[in-house]
Amino acid sequence: MERLTLRQFIESALGGRSKAPAPATSPARPTPTGTRRVTAKNASPFVNRGMAVQRRSERIPDVWVTNQRGERKRFRSDLVEGRKMMLGFIYTRCEGICPLTTHNMRRVHELLEDEFDAGLQMISLSLDPKRDSVKDLAEYARQHRAELPGWDFVVAANEEETTALRRAVGAYEIDPVLDQDITQHSGVLIFGNDRTDRWMGLGAGSEPEIIAKSFIRTTREGAIARLSRDSGPGVPLAAQKLNARMRAKHEDPACDAGALVRQAVTTKP
Length: 269
Hints:
Elements: H1 6-13, E1 64-67, E2 72-74, H2 75-79, E3 84-90, H3 98-111, H4 113-116, E4 121-126, H5 134-143, E5 151-156, H6 159-168, H7 176-179, E6 188-193, E7 198-203, H8 208-219, H9 237-248, H10 257-262
Parallel strand pairs: 3-4, 4-5
Antiparallel strand pairs: 1-2, 1-5, 3-6, 6-7
């Protein structure tokens, strides 16, 4: 009688060769009609025109604000959508970082003057809508030599809308008590390009040349040569001028950040 191996005996008892059960598979999830899965490759609205991809700017409430010239504008529609922009936070009675923020933004404005021809928008948002009037904003801009094209000092209608704008761009404190104290507000500049949906935040006290170069790198559209190059194909004109300025190491006594903070600031009651 033929001797069976244990495996052969089990197989014969089961009526043939044993087969491992097929692994259970999860049913495929149906894809909603008219939508596409967003991936790292297709997420950029600039590269994929026509795709219904939510941009970061769509989180920003489109509230009415008034600038230093008394003009009413929609914050997102008029100042952010489809633009390169830079946003800083101030209030006219501020004796802390606000003067330095405004000073550095003015110097960045000088360094990026060619960008304004392409629609760059600078925004200084007041954090004190209860007290900052259009007249206050106009005087503040005049005192800081910031009456420049493409730069709006704006105030929202109330604290709720101001807080909504801050929180939409991430400029808030986790501690709610600290967050409501405007003397402790975030000293940050937020800038980006809504067309490419690329954004960055940098300390408002950073060197203006560093802010400007970071802005160019973040907001560029398409590949460009190394920003450290002085000139050549692919190097933006703003970057060429910035490199020349940094190379010259221009010394401007008015740019002493410490002196700026120490200087007397007219305090309104």
